[in-house]
Fold this sequence. Notes:
This protein is α+β, with helices and mostly antiparallel strands. Helix content is about 25%, strand content about 15%. The protein contains 4 helices and 4 strands, in the order αββββααα. The radius of gyration is 16 Å and the shape is globular. The N and C termini lie far apart (about 60 Å).
Amino acid sequence: MTAPTSQSVVPRNFRLLEELEAGQKGVGDGTISWGLEDDSDMTLTNWMGMIIGPPRTNFENRMYSLKIQCGPKYPDEPPTIGFVNRINMQGVNSQTGIVDKRQVCVLGRWQRSYTIKTVLHELRRLMTQKENVKLAQPPEGTCY
């Protein structure tokens, strides 16, 4: 007799604490990073992210800051993400810097297993796509 298989669902705060720990450890190659906007945010809602622009693109040698909001239904629903620094890129609203969930695959087809790291990696990958790689960028240091 086999036991029924059941997937345990990790509660929101436990999941976000895992993501916070991963961000603090600096996993990966250093081209992205993330952490809480305010260390006293007990709801683990407001985050900051950073992406270093990929080489051989118009984003190269630029650091992009992002505001990330993990709502009460995260990770069942994707976070809301917006660039702080002005950026010219498909899928990013040119007036507000908000990332359009319908135009960024990992947000539009969100899965519970995705993380803040997943989204930041995808946004950096999109900077290397042919439709974005040569787009003229706003002056460095300008913000929304």
